[in-house]
């Protein structure tokens, strides 16, 4: 009887393979698995066996039946999906199974862009500590302790000699202290000023740049920054260099670009001047070379620094600086 | 600094629009921050004559005025105390708008008709004066438009512009109207007119009236003084009050106003003492003694120390040198005789004292930047002539000028070649000479390629060749310097070691569905408690900020968790509950007072809410431990890390002790992963949120990332798969079983996958079933079935032996 059952299974399996449509499948089901089907009728003959063989046969019969049922369902599904390919309607507007994707912070995107442009020009990207010695943040940048230039930046103090860096410029000193020219570096990072209102956050980001070598001129400074800003804001961007003051550069220049909002006609963003302050820069002051033991008669160079939040606000049209640090998804999702 | 255009015009002829002048100044380094019209919207206001005054029937303080407006007679209710019949005053009739925006109407005031308003100066935005209506000179005709008076009476100068200029700390010579006028004159090639000084000395000789001795010549290199006797203290004339007003200075009385006026005009701070309050008629300049106190003009009593420079009389301090005068010698309405001080104080001394006292004034602002030491007596004489003009009296003959070491200008070498090498220009010696002379420098020829320059005494910023080169660049014009492109030579410096990794990690994390956040580096000192940190936890090694803006930003963070959980809270408040966030940033650990902290880079990520949202193809599924662990595993695998292991850990701060693990690579700790403990969630207001975190130490990670990846040749021989289905004690970790398989099968094990886990929590047997699929593969041959079967059996036996587990039946 066992052999009979296995024979039946073999036949069923080959029949199953030949099935082409739902009608044939139903005929198959009735023929084998129906109440009066072949498998069922074999199983009904269980009583004909000696009692000690019954459990084993029962188990086997159940296995065969379960196996056939499963395969039958597979075929049914197969038929259905084949049918779907031919007839049923594919709704291409249903949303796909979208894998999760994330977002980089807009400040990261802008820092990356700035670094990419300047790296291509040959600047190396370096980093420095956020909590900085007074010496690097001020003293060696030609900002002595009792100088009014200290008022230009409201400082967070950790102790008399330790501050939260107010700019990324201390990295200039740290690099020049250990490396002889030529030096060409940029340094992105967080900086801190004791200032918090609608347009200021107590922490923000800057990118610093420094190039020192033989024969570096103010013309080179203009060229480098022109090239950079043209990449950043487009070839047609007009810029202007105007005199300013930074203790560690001389001559110092503030760099403005034509207002990207109003195109120069004057608007709220540019306080009706038609220009946007975008960069501080200048030729490295010889006093700074004194601190790092460079010969100011042999070497010259320029430094520049820019605020990333401002760049990001202009680039993306963000009107509230606080948004960067609130990190709401409705903000982050847009980048 | 705010400056009136009309005032500037007194010293230099300016023939351009205010905006154009603003641009010119900005391009020369004097940045225009604001430009405001003043006294320009006075249309409709006319000169009117008060014909008669009678009391208001209902109000004691009000009067009824009959007023001749030049266009008929009207009745006006007026509350000013200074009106008299016959007086001329500005009048606004019904319908006229004032600069404040208010429009005058024909109305009833306390039951009586009032057809307009007689105006005070502040109501027209001219000064801040509101003591009464503005009384005009008597020779005007009623009906004359008020705004046209400026041409009639020059000093009224009603229509004006106020330039708000940002002055860089290197240019104290620009902190005065005359200084800015000088710059304009140089820029547009005009002559500078200097203020008029007319001194009619009529009094006794100064030597008999006062003396000055300087005990601290370092703190006070020059002290000049003059005396005027018999002055009439009173209000200043309109023109002076208006100019002070436009510069933001309050009018006090004619004497004090003169000192402020000259300060604004010439940049020299002055002080006026009540001469009769100076004991022994002496001035002594000395340092304060420790423990001394002094009451300044503002009524504050201030502690002094030996750094405070004091102006004293024969007995006591009378002024805080260069910062503020004393209450004990101030000018009062009763003052008869005045001693005027015009001194030069050492910038560092004044700055230290001002900083220590937290007292910054117009005077200290200028002294700490450096005033023109040579200008002290000119300013003194200018002030004396104005006092005489405004308050009468008689000027004592002569002045005191204690100036022990007169100024000698520096000689600075300026090499033409150096200029051109630094700027990238090709300027000639003649051109440079011209620029220097335009700036009032003394220029001498000093050999073929160089000049010897002596800057004027007011240019305290010029001491070196570099300072002169800057001036050359400024006058030549930055826009005229040719643009060149440097060829950047590679130096010794390399990109920061974590740079590539930071890019890569950010890309991977965002690819895995996470949004990057950036939070402040300072947090609340309570955050350690909120994270459940124990006493000795490094989370408590805070670096405190001495002068924080707020208590919740007063220490440097020791963990990124507070920032990330606060961000979760912010988002949850906006119904954003299914979050995947990460932050890459530094934490800071105290290394000792006065030392830089240890700065450590961390990557922290969090997931909350649903891992999968119900959609047409799936159901909601809440995040769990294996979601965050999976992200971490994917990240580490993508970074090329091998041999990453996880160990259960119960003692991590912030984590649920039952659901957390340490992450290791070849035995060294990389970070942590797990569920945020309920206490911590609650402390951050997130009791309803389920959140899972991981933290990675970037420095530790960097050490484990293979520098280069070595290619492994792809196996050419087929793999053989065998499954094992085990019943194991619940507490046995799957990794232990995998380890046994790998150890036993050594290099024939290609991989082990766990493809099934079943655990019947209700069952009383503490068992679970785990199913493994082993892929056997050899690098150098095709494995035969018998060999694999026998190895597979050994492995099963080993597992049974070591875990006490058994094979699952069926
Ligand atoms: Zn604009």
From TrEMBL, chain A:
GO terms for cellular component: cytoplasm. Binds 2 magnesium ions per tetramer. It is found in: Cytoplasm. It comes from the Bacteria. One of its GO terms (biological process) is phenylalanyl-tRNA aminoacylation. Its EC number is 6.1.1.20. The keyword ATP-binding applies. GO terms for molecular function: ATP binding; magnesium ion binding; phenylalanine-tRNA ligase activity; tRNA binding. Tetramer of two alpha and two beta subunits. HAMAP family: Phe_tRNA_synth_alpha1 (MF_00281). Belongs to the class-II aminoacyl-tRNA synthetase family. Phe-tRNA synthetase alpha subunit type 1 subfamily. This is Phenylalanine--tRNA ligase alpha subunit. It comes from uncultured Desulfobacterium sp. The gene is pheS.
From TrEMBL, chain B:
This is Phenylalanine--tRNA ligase beta subunit. GO terms for molecular function: ATP binding; magnesium ion binding; phenylalanine-tRNA ligase activity; tRNA binding. Transmembrane segments: none annotated. Binds 2 magnesium ions per tetramer. Signal peptide: none annotated. It catalyses: tRNA(Phe) + L-phenylalanine + ATP = L-phenylalanyl-tRNA(Phe) + AMP + diphosphate + H(+). The gene is pheT. GO terms for biological process: phenylalanyl-tRNA aminoacylation. Its EC number is 6.1.1.20. PANTHER family: PHENYLALANINE--TRNA LIGASE BETA SUBUNIT, PHENYLALANYL-TRNA SYNTHETASE BETA CHAIN AND LEUCINE-RICH REPEAT-CONTAINING PROTEIN 47. It is an enzyme of class 6 (ligase). Mg(2+) binds at residues 461, 467, 470-471. It comes from the Bacteria.
């Amino acid at each position: 009887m066992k052999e009979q059952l296995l024979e039946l299974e073999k036949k069923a399996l080959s029949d199953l393979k030949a099935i082409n449509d739902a009608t044939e499948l139903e005929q198959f089901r009735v023929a084998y698995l129906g109440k009066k089907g072949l498998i069922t009728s074999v199983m009904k003959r269980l009583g004909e066996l000696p009692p000690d063989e019954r459990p084993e046969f029962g188990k086997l019969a159940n296995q065969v039946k379960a196996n056939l049922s499963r395969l039958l369902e597979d075929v049914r599904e197969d038929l259905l999906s084949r049918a779907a390919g031919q007839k049923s309607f594919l709704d291409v507007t249903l949303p796909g199974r979208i894998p999760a994707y994330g977002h980089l912070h807009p400040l990261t995107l802008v820092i990356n862009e700035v670094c990419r442009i300047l790296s291509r020009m040959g600047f190396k990207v370096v980093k420095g500590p956020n909590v900085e010695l007074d010496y690097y943040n001020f003293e060696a940048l030609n900002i002595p302790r009792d100088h009014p230039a200290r008022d230009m930046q409201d400082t967070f103090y950790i102790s008399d000699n330790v501050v939260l860096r107010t700019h990324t410029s201390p990295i200039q000193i740290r690099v020049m202290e250990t490396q002889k020219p030529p030096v060409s570096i940029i340094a992105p990072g967080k900086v801190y000023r004791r200032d918090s209102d609608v347009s200021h956050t107590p922490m923000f980001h800057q990118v610093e740049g420094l190039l020192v070598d033989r024969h570096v001129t103010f013309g080179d400074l203009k060229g480098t920054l022109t090239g950079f800003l043209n990449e950043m804001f487009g070839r047609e961007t007009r810029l202007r260099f105007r005199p300013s003051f930074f203790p560690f550069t001389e001559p110092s220049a503030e760099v403005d670009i034509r207002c990207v909002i109003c195109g120069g006609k004057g608007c709220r963003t540019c306080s009706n001047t038609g220009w946007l302050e975008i960069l501080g820069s200048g030729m490295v002051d010889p006093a700074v070379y004194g601190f790092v033991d460079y010969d100011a008669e042999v070497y010259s160079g320029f430094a520049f620094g820019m605020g990333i939040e401002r760049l990001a606000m202009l680039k993306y049209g963000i009107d509230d600086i606080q948004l960067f640090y609130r990190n709401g998804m409705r903000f982050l999702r847009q980048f | 600094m705010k400056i009136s255009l009309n005032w500037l015009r007194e010293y230099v002829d300016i023939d351009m629009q205010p905006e154009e002048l603003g641009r010119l100044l900005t391009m020369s380094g004097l940045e225009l921050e604001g430009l405001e019209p003043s006294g320009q919207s006075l249309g409709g206001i006319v000169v009117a004559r008060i014909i008669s005054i009678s009391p208001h029937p209902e109000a004691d303080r009000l009067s009824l005025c009959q007023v001749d407006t030049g266009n008929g007679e009207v009745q006006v209710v007026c509350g000013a105390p200074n009106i008299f019949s016959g007086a001329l005053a500005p009048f606004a009739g019904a319908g006229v708008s004032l600069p404040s925006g208010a429009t005058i109407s024909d109305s009833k005031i306390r039951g009586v008709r009032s057809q307009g308003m007689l105006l005070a100066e502040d109501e027209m935005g001219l000064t801040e004066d509101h003591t009464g209506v503005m009384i005009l000179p008597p020779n005007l005709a009623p009906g004359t438009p008020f705004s046209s008076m400026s041409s009639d009476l020059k000093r009224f100068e009603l229509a004006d512009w106020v330039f708000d200029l940002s002055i860089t700390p290197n240019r104290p010579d620009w902190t005065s109207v005359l200084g800015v006028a000088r710059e304009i004159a140089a820029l547009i090639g005009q002559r500078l007119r200097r203020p008029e000084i007319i001194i009619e000395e009529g009094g006794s000789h100064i030597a008999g009236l006062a003396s000055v001795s300087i005990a601290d010549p370092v703190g006070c290199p020059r002290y000049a003084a003059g005396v005027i006797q018999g002055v009439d203290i009173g209000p200043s004339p309109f023109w002076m009050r208006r100019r002070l007003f436009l510069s933001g200075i309050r009018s006090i009385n004619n004497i004090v106003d003169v000192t402020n006026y000259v300060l604004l005009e010439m940049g020299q701070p002055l002080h006026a003492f009540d001469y009769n309050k100076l004991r022994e008629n002496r001035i002594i300049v000395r340092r304060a003694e420790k423990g001394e106190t002094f009451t300044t003009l503002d009524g504050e009593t201030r502690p002094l120390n030996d750094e405070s420079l004091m102006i004293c009389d024969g007995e006591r301090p009378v002024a805080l040198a260069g910062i503020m005068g004393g209450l004990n010698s101030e000018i009062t309405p009763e003052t008869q005789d005045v001693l005027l001080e015009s001194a030069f104080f050492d910038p560092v001394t004044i700055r230290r004292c001002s900083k220590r006292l937290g007292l910054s004034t117009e005077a200290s602002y200028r002294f700490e930047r450096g005033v023109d030491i040579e200008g002290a007596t000119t300013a003194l004489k200018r002030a004396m002539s104005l006092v005489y003009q405004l308050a009468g009296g008689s000027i004592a003959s002569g002045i005191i000028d204690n100036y022990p070491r007169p100024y000698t200008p520096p000689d600075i070498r300026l090499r033409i070649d150096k200029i051109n090498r630094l700027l990238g220009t090709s300027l000639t010696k003649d051109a440079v000479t011209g620029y220097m002379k335009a700036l009032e420098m003394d220029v001498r020829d000093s050999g073929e390629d160089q000049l010897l320059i002596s800057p004027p005494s007011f240019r305290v910023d010029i001491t070196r060749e570099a300072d002169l080169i800057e001036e050359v660049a400024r006058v030549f014009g930055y826009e005229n310097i040719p643009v060149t492109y440097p060829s950047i030579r590679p130096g010794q410096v390399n990109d920061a070691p974590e740079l590539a990794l930071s890019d890569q990690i950010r890309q991977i994390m965002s690819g895995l569905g996470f949004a990057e956040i950036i939070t402040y580096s300072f947090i609340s000192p309570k955050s350690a408690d909120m994270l459940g940190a124990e006493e000795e936890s490094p989370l408590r090694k805070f670096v405190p900020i001495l002068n924080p803006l707020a208590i919740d930003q007063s220490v440097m963070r020791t963990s990124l968790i507070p920032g990330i959980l606060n961000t979760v809270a912010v988002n949850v408040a906006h119904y954003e509950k299914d979050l995947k966030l990460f932050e890459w940033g530094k934490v800071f650990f105290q290394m000792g007072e006065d030392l830089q902290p240890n700065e450590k880079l961390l990557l922290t990520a969090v997931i909350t809410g649903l891992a999968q949202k119900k959609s047409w193809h799936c159901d909601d599924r809440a995040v769990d431990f294996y979601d965050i662990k999976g992200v971490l595993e994917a990240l580490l695998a993508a970074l090329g890390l091998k041999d990453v292991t996880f160990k259960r850990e119960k003692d991590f701060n912030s984590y649920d002790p039952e659901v957390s693990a340490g992450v290791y690579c070849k035995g060294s700790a990389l970070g942590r992963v797990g569920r945020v403990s309920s206490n911590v969630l609650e402390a951050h207001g997130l009791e309803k949120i389920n959140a899972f975190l991981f933290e990675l130490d970037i420095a530790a990670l960097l050490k484990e990332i293979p520098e280069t990846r070595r290619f492994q040749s792809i196996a050419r021989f087929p793999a053989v798969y065998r499954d094992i289905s085990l019943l194991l004690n619940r507490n046995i970790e799957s990794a232990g079983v995998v380890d046994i398989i790998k150890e036993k099968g050594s290099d024939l094990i290609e991989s082990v996958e766990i493809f099934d886990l079943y655990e019947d929590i209700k069952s009383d047997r503490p068992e679970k079933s785990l199913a493994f699929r082993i892929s056997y593969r050899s690098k150098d041959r095709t494995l035969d079935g018998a060999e694999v079967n026998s190895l597979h059996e050994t492995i099963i036996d080993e597992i049974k032996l070591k875990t006490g587990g058994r094979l699952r039946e069926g």
